């Protein structure tokens, strides 16, 4: 019996040893395809990039760490590095903050789901399409760019635009430039006289609804006059004379100036006429520069000064929805009894948010922040598409510089490989923090 038992036990142990002994072969068979792909797509490119970064542009001359030195000596690459710092600090922080605000504010709203859907929708758009959209949004022409159209509308609400931007006196007229964009008559005016102020180069839209000009009647003791567009459609007409069909210039400010001091002023009526009091006699008439100032065309969003913040704005538009969805999922797991207990104890909504909601959401916020930081370090297509050629150097980032150095006009694969390795080094600390966080969560 003992021998039989020993024999049966020996067979079972042998079977177990056989299965245990074959497990690493089974694991190797299943892992081999993944390991081959990992080596071909990750390990080999990284190793080759490190190797190639040690050689010059031709690939024949060994330069050691010379390409890495160029990272900090080349002005364009330093600009890219500075912009990457701005991107890493600003873009993930703003996107995460907006996602948190959206997730908390829409929690109790009936239409919160619809709002979240709208905010998340830009994630369905490719970076290429988003870049094209925002290239149009930031167009400086208010007729095409939405951002400047809104900005100009707000500006013009509080600052009255010039009535006739770009207008100027007719050649050989009595009006002459007097500095700063203003025009002043050469001769002084007399009481009881009527003065003509003919102008040209008026934009058609500025006189589209203007009525016909009228010759001002002289008034005893006063100075009268008419300002009009001295231009007849189809040609003809007499210079300096109000011909039939010529348009009045209404809303034009006229000043009487004596010894550099304004003694009287008036604004032209709908028919172009104006009346100055008797104190204007013996003075010269001046049309201030405010009458002809160029129209406000908004902000140069894609200029060298604002191009990086503008592109970051487009990134936030795309990724705030991603942050909101993840934070909303974490918010759904927050124990409601803790929030209600805090409210019962007299805590306000801001105190509940700051002292309970945010600390409980801290793991989720870290996940979102780290994910966006890794994503931002690889940003390329938005910058390449949105930034115009004149501002591309000011908006440059490391990933774009990597593309330009490797495949641009001045091809230097050694420098491009050094930039790629440097980007990998920048990502490694973020990945390490993320892995430590994952391990801590598994231990819990």
TrEMBL record:
PROSITE patterns: ABC_TM1
TM stretches of this protein: 24-46, 85-105, 117-138, 316-334, 360-387, 415-435
One Pfam family per UniProt: BPD_transp_1
Primary location recorded for the protein, binned into one broad class: membrane
Compartments reported by the entry: Cell membrane
Membrane disposition: Multi-pass membrane protein
The keyword Metal-binding is annotated on this UniProt entry: no
All residue ranges annotated as the ABC transmembrane type-1 domain in the record: 81-434
Alphabetized UniProt keyword annotations: Cell membrane, Membrane, Transmembrane, Transmembrane helix, Transport
Similarity comment text for this entry: Belongs to the binding-protein-dependent transport system permease family.
PANTHER family linked: BLL4140 PROTEIN, DIACETYLCHITOBIOSE UPTAKE SYSTEM PERMEASE PROTEIN DASB
Protein name (Swiss-Prot/TrEMBL): Sugar ABC transporter permease
Organism in which the protein naturally occurs: Streptomyces yunnanensis
Taxon lineage: Bacteria, Bacillati, Actinomycetota, Actinomycetes, Kitasatosporales
């Amino acid at each position: 019996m003992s021998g039989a038992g020993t024999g049966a036990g020996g067979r079972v142990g042998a079977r177990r040893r056989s299965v245990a002994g074959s497990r690493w072969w089974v694991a190797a068979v299943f892992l081999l395809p993944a390991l081959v792909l990992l080596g071909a797509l990750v390990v080999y490119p990284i190793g080759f990039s490190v190797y190639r970064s040690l050689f010059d542009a031709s690939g024949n001359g060994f330069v050691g760490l010379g390409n890495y030195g160029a990272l900090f000596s080349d002005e364009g690459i330093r600009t890219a590095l500075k912009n990457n710092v701005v991107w890493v600090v600003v873009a993930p922080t703003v996107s995460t903050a907006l996602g948190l605000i959206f997730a908390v504010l829409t929690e109790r709203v009936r239409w919160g789901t619809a709002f979240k859907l709208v905010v998340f929708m830009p994630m369905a758009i490719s970076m290429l399409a988003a870049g094209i959209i925002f290239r149009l949004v930031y167009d400086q022409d208010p007729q095409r760019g939405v951002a400047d159209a809104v900005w100009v509308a707000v500006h013009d609400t509080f600052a009255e635009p010039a009535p006739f931007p770009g207008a100027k006196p007719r050649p050989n007229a009595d009006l002459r430039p007097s500095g700063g964009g203003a025009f002043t008559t050469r001769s002084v005016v007399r009481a009881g006289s009527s003065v003509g102020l003919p102008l040209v180069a008026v934009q058609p839209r500025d006189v589209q609804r203007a009525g016909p000009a009228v010759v001002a009647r002289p008034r005893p003791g006063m100075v009268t006059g008419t300002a009009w567009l001295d231009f007849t459609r189809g040609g003809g007409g007499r210079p300096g004379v109000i011909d039939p069909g010529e348009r009045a210039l209404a809303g034009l400010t006229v000043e009487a100036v004596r010894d550099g001091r304004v003694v009287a002023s008036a604004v032209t009526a709908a028919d172009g006429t104006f009346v100055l009091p008797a104190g204007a006699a013996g003075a010269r008439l001046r049309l201030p520069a405010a009458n002809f100032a160029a129209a406000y065309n908004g902000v140069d969003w894609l200029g060298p000064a604002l191009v990086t913040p503008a592109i970051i704005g487009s990134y936030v538009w795309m990724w705030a929805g991603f942050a909101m969805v993840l934070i909303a999922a974490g918010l759904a797991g927050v124990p409601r009894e803790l929030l209600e207990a805090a409210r019962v104890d007299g805590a306000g909504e801001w105190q509940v948010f700051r002292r309970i909601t945010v600390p409980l959401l801290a793991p989720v916020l870290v996940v979102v922040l780290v994910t966006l930081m890794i994503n931002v370090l690889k940003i390329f297509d938005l910058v390449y598409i949105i930034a115009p050629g004149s501002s591309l150097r000011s908006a440059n980032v490391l990933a774009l510089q990597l593309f330009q150095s490797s495949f641009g006009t001045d091809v230097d694969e050694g420098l491009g490989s050094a930039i790629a390795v440097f980007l990998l080094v920048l990502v490694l600390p973020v990945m390490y923090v993320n892995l430590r966080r994952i391990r801590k969560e598994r231990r819990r």
